[in-house]
Amino acid sequence: MGISPVHPYLYIPLDIFMRTDLRSPRFLRPLLFPLALTLALPLLAAPSWEDVDPARLRQLIASYNGKKTVLVNVWATWCLPCVKEFADIVRLQKQHAADLQVLFVSVDSADARQAVETFLEKQGVDWTTYRKVGKDQEFIDGLSSSWSGAIPATLIVDKEGKKVTFIEGITDFATLEKHIQTTITKSSQPIDHEGVEK
Amino acid sequence: MKNSVKMLAFAAIVAVACRTTAFAATELAIGAGLPKADVKLTDIADKSISLADAKGKNGLLVIFSCNTCPYVIASEERYKSIAEVCAANGVGMILLNANEAQRDGVDSLAEMKAHAQKYGYTFSYAIDANAELADAFGATRTPHIFLFNKDQALVYRGAIDDSVMDATKVEKQYLADAIKAMAAGTEIAVKETKAIGCSIKTK
Q1: Which residues of chain A lie closer than 8 angstroms to B200, CB-CB?
Q2: 3-state DSSP helix/strand/coil percent for chain A, to nearest 5?
């Protein structure tokens, strides 16, 4: 019974290792890539938080035309009703992944990035979210003429790009589920403005 | 049969009433009169004050506000400068706190007093019990501005300016311009604006 031969693939790293002078910093070179990848993985896994102005938001919504119903939710980490309803919206996205795209738009200030990302990670949000930039008036008017400006605010746009439901104030899973189911089932229906649910 | 009809009618009335209460009152229209002018409110000086009492010779500025909303905190310095504009133009100014859901906590009278002291309020800051005035005004957020002329008619509503969260980016001083125009008897250029704000926390 002879000694098992070394697998041919192992000759290459072994050869590199044997040729490397351990006293030289070059020894670390082969380790740099895996090290950088390890450090970058948490960043790659965290949902991104991109700036969005009214024009960009219109483009984003339009990009789902003919594909998915879109739910835009305007929120902030410091807004208690927003935080309260947030998990319901995440649940909705996960239950209707094939037919619905949730676009979270935060109105937190730019220096709150860490708090926002920590919150998103805790909530299990693994898709791109947004931060509102630019003047309020244009953003409000662009989202819904029914919106007074109070947050949270939620807009549902059907697959044809028609704004079908707007809710100002806190809502709940059952209400959203009803609206989403209706919107997904019916391709188009008249707009239903809901007022502030205090 | 008659009973069935009556029951159906009653159910319909209840359904309509319930649905209506879930909706926000519409924002007071430009030109509308000052609502609830004589309702007595408790303010941070432990005095009873009404909107009629707070009115100046040229009008009244009502701001729905609170103690913790970042949009309010970002506006505190502007409250001071607006108070100066009001004083210079004979306009009364009062802040109302309608956050009934937080009345036992961050929006209690004691917290309102501490907040007013911290930010050096020189104007009235009163409790809007049960959000009675917020409902009458159709106020939904903080800060939410309502400006009335000397005849108690609404002449401007909305935001202080066009950049609530960042004072360095203000380009249009909507409220200050409206107060000056109103006192001067000239036309107010922009009468309605909107801004993002914290929702009023009613019970």
Answers
A1: 150, 198
A2: 45, 20, 30
**Is A62 in CB contact (< 8 Å) with chain B?**
no
ipTM of the complex: 0.84
| 3-class SS of residue A12 | helix
**Pairs across A and B, CB distance < 8 A:** 80
pTM of the model: 0.81
Structure tokens at A140: 């409000």
d(C-alpha A143, C-alpha A72), whole Å:
9
Local confidence pLDDT in tens for the 198 residues of chain A? 334 444 444 445 445 555 555 555 565 566 666 566 555 554 455 568 899 999 999 999 999 999 999 999 999 999 999 999 999 999 999 999 999 999 999 999 999 999 999 999 999 999 999 999 999 999 999 999 999 999 999 999 999 999 999 999 999 999 999 999 999 998 544 555 554 433
For residue B143, cis peptide bond before it (omega within 30 degrees of 0): yes
Residue of B75, B194, B203 for testing the chain A interface, max A β-carbons within 10 Å:
B194
Nearest residue, CB atoms, A196 vs list B24, B162, B193: B24
